[in-house]
Amino acid sequence: MNILDKIVAHKRTEVADAKSRVSLAQLEQAPLFGRPTLSLKNALTANGASGIISEFKRKSPSKGIINDRVLPDIVTQGYVAAGANGLSVLTDTDFFGGTFEDFGKARAANPTTPMLRKDFMIDEYQLWEAKAIGADVILLIAACLTPDEISYLGQKAHSLGLEVLLEVHDREELEQSLCEHVDMVGVNNRNLKTFVTSVETSLELAQLIPDNFVKISESSLKDADTIVQLRAAGYQGFLIGETFMKTEDPAAALRGLVAEITSKTQFA
Ligand SMILES: O=P(O)(O)OC[C@@H](O)[C@@H](O)c1c[nH]c2ccccc12
Q: Where is the signal peptide (predicted)?
């Protein structure tokens, strides 16, 4: 079994368990459930936007522990001050060390920044959870969902006011999964089954994504030159976790990257 299959199998038992403990009606009573959501799409396409979505990620199956010494509210607030247009916070516990509590702390610290609930969504119950914790955007990963599931979950997410980021890794996934219930397309440079990363994946798929979807390049992004190159290829969003999280001060690492991108674009 590859790691993605393992994560999804575990997620099914986790969701079944959560459903037996907390009903949809109870999730709807959560204080943040009815909160008006913020648009990541608008934030990424605004004039002068950095396009950077910074991720709070404690550990991952490919890297092990990345950083277990920092706090979600401090780091994410620093990210926003340093120029992030959006935040991504892992809520998967067993494989990524994230929690709803991490998400909640980041949410409270950043009331006006669009936030992605980063998890493996396989059931509409999780969309209700996303609303209850104050998420604005959810992720649908083509590698672990059928085209029908993507369409169904995308439609449900929209009916709750959530934006939808569809994640693809190759041409086939893109062609089979893209539908009207998606707002943004994320190209994951990391193959979730093998962990191999290549920015070429984003460069190759760019022209195949219709322009009515905001394009986001995800994973293994490390330097300003790559961001500038991806922007020229049509990407408006850049999802970055490890490059920041592996440092003592993730927000400072983002600030440095933004400064470098700015100087390269000004003198290009
Ligand atoms: O830490 P990186 O290499 O900058 O990657 C961030 C993000 O793209 C990555 O965490 C990710 C992309 N898609 C996912 C799906 C599930 C879990 C995690 C991910």
A: none
pLDDT tens by residue, 61-110: 999 999 999 999 999 999 999 999 999 999 999 999 999 999 999 999 99
Q: Domain holding 54: CATH number?
A: 3.20.20.70
Residues in the chain: 268
Query: Which helix (DSSP H) or strand (DSSP E) does residue 114 occupy?
Result: none
In short, whether 119's Cβ falls inside 6 Å of ligand 1 is no
**Residue whose entry in the numeric block shows the structure tokens 């649908």:** 140
Q: Who's near 204: CB < 8 A, 6+ residues apart?
A: 171
Q: How many domains does the chain have?
A: 1
Tokens of 192: 């979730």
Domain span at residue 175 reads 3-32+39-266
Digit-coded pLDDT (tens) for 106-148: 999 999 999 999 999 999 999 999 999 999 999 999 999 999 9
pTM over 0.95: yes
3-class DSSP state of 51: coil
Q: In a mutational test of the pocket of ligand 1, which residue from 10, 57, 202 has the highest number of ligand atoms less than 8 Å from its CB?
A: 57
Given a contact cutoff of 8 angstroms between Cβ atoms, the answer to whether 40 and 184 are in contact is yes
